[in-house]
Amino acid sequence: MLRTLFITGLFMAASMTTAQGNSFDQPASSPFGKTKSGEAVELYTLTNGKITAKIATLGATLVQLHVPDKDGKLADVILGWDDAAGYQSDDNQYFGCTTGRVCNRIAKGKFKLDGKEYTLATNNDVNHLHGGLDKALSKVVWKARPYANDKGQGVEFTYTSPDGDEGYPGNLTVSVTYFIPTDNNALRINYTATTDKATPVNLTNHAYFNLAGAGSGTILDHNLRINADSFTAVDDTLIPTGEIKSVEGTPLDFRKPVRIGERIDQVDKTSTQGYDHNYVLNAPEEGKPMRLAAVLTDPASKRQMRVMTTEPAVQLYTGNFLKGQKGKDGKTYAHRSACCLETQHYPDSVNHPKFPTTILKPSDKFTSQTVFQFSIAGAAKE
Ligand code: GAL
Q1: For the whole model, what pTM was predicted?
Q2: How far from chain centre, in Å, is Cα 92?
Q3: Could you tell me if the CB of 94 is within 6 A of ligand 1?
Q4: What are the structural domains of the chain?
Q5: Cα–Cα distance for residue pair 339/316, rounded to 1 Å
Q6: Which pLDDT value is given to residue 25?
């Protein structure tokens, strides 16, 4: 009897009805392996019946994203692994993770804040990259709170990074919420953060996209549009010089859709070894918080992804360091077989007072939103 009541209770908690009478289900979870120190990692599934995302508590990482093509055929369009072990291997180049506390680079891992100098790990030659080493947000296990309502399914991940982690000041509490709406083929990511000491924060998701399906070849035939007239010029170690340069007349001009492979040779033999550039996004439309960052299209499958964000910049990275590692279902991830569109503030902002600030103060709350919106090219306006 008690057991029956318990099971009925579980069932009721998992499948409920809103005030409007719509039924919705709590996102399901399943075990995804363990960290090297033995912590359990869970994988959550969000779906609206048309697109499906799977997200792991390790690094609040987007592990799978299934999206339909022109014939309704689904493909998983992001790179990743089948279990937590893959994400902890040397082959993991930040696949799908929540990246921070500060994504991208900080020159020589140093910055001054309120008269004090801070030193971070240098894990990218002489520079600090993507939040550092084993306490970076991509490397730790987050708490998950799945939820569902009449608008869709979501899961909120939270993590408190203690004062001094990776050299950063302040106890930083971060929340990342992934959400798939019922009525829209979109994956929304909402970030918030609070701190008890002033500290730099710059958060992004580092998903590697291939709209033909992860492991199916290069992205050189994808068309890309980036809504940016300019980019942050960088030195040989990919640290901004401070100069904001126009894309006009350069291979970085994606203001109209261009095949990614069209001019990539022109940036191949440079310090970026392909596209690895931070674009300064054009202003949002009057009164709108979100701006269009980019539109990525696979002409064969006609899968199209619009990236919208409240962030001022997007890093285009064309998988220049992918090395043929084996990922999900034993698929191989060759050089340039995916690209990242990482919405964020400019790199090394903490050392560039003229860039939009990345400093979060105890009296403020960091908020940021990015939407990956999927459609069929030609079926809706590009
Ligand atoms: C990108 C970065 C690249 C590279 C990559 C990870 O965000 O711009 O330079 O570090 O991450 O391999």
Answers
A1: 0.93
A2: 14
A3: yes
A4: 12-376 (2.70.98.10)
A5: 7
A6: 87
